[in-house]
Amino acid sequence: MVDYTDVRYGAAGSGGCAYSMMAILEDSRVTLSNSTLSDAEWAAVYINAHETSAHVYNSHISSSPCPLYAANSTDLKLAGNVFEGTLRIVDSSGMRIRYNTVTGETYYTWFGEDPLPADIDIRHNTLLGGVRGDLSDWSGNWYGHDANQPLPLCLEPEVAEAWIPALEFTANGDCEVGRT
Known about the structure:
It is a single chain. The protein has 180 residues and is mainly β. It is 3% helix and 40% strand. It has one helix spanning 157-162; strands spanning 2-3, 6-10, 20-24, 29-33, 36-40, 43-48, 53-57, 60-62, 66-71, 75-79, 82-83, 87-90, 95-98, 101-102, 106-109, 120-123, 126-127, 131-133. The strands form three sheets. A six-stranded parallel sheet has the order 1-4-7-10-13-16, with no helix packed on it. The radius of gyration is 18 Å and the shape is globular. The N and C termini lie far apart (52 Å).
């Protein structure tokens, strides 16, 4: 257990999110809580191995290209955290990801046999950088604006392209030049 800890400046390697300040590997059971991790060269936390239990609660991970990168994890619990950057999850199941704030993109992909929906619970998060990947149901999360409010008639093209969830749009003759 790592609790109430401040970790800064770490991660060696030639590049990529597999190089980290904190690596949780084969047959590990780790809980990181109430901590701050910042200024990693690559990933702040890297989780990779089957039969691994990684729980991260009420922590703040910032100033890292990949705040958290999880691959092949079978028991991943993330709750009440702030991830400043991209949250990457690959081939992991047994997940409960709730009440987190992610400022970068949230990315989930699955290369093997599709997991059961009960194995993947990603709800009640603030996903400000959007989502991408193989998860079919991202509902139950907030994207930084009220999705139930009507859209304005005209938007700048870059605003329309960056809208989360993605918009399909066409040029509108009623809009002023430079707006869609």
